[in-house]
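quick one, 247 residues, struct below
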Amino acid sequence: MSGHSKWSTIKRKKGAADAKRSKIFSRISKEIQVAVKEAGPDPEANPRLRLVIANAKGVNMPKDNIERVINKASKEDANLHEVTFEGYAPHGIALFIECLTDNNNRTVSNIRSTFNRRGGNLATSGSVGFMFERKGVITVADNGYDRDEFELEMIDAGAENIDIEDERFIITSTLEDFGPVRKKLEEMGIEPENAELHRIPTDTKKLSKEEAIKVMRIIEEFEDDDDVQNVYHNLEVTDEILAALDA
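---
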């Protein structure tokens, strides 16, 4: 199940989209708080918390930090709630933005301001959501596994696509098969580097390098906002565009 991975062209590689370490830890801390509020501080009884903790370990978040956030969230009434925004960047690129916030007015104001300042526009709910599919994306380091056998196990568990990039397996599944694929990895004694639900565009749009860079700049500004957890888009990102951004 090889081939060109949508994941690699739609979202910059893990660690590049959230370049700042503090931003990564802040994002995960918020996810932990929401998970604890939703179903309690025990990872064994809280699948969402268990998944977030695994992702925290995948980005080398210290164990003490994780435990501190869990303890704080279990003792305090976390006011964070999830909110999403839809809109368009310049040149008609669709954006779907996921946020966790304790102040909805602040978040709405910041999102609208960035759209306006960068030449985009905030749209109504449902305007671009249909352009994305909810998918499970799991990253597993290739630690010398028999690749054919590994792929067969993942396919049997419900994996939709498997790509190999930078000595890592990028496993994509439907929303429904995300849990079974994760369970199979647990049974195999394999701990993923990252396992999350993402919004994958059903189709991507090509722009010139100059146009694409303008779009990526607005995406980066959204990602730098403390309330923003994820930004999804349907821009086709090439190596040339990434090189220009990092220059």
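Residues 81-130+204-236 form a domain with the Alpha-Beta Plaits fold (CATH 3.30.70.980).
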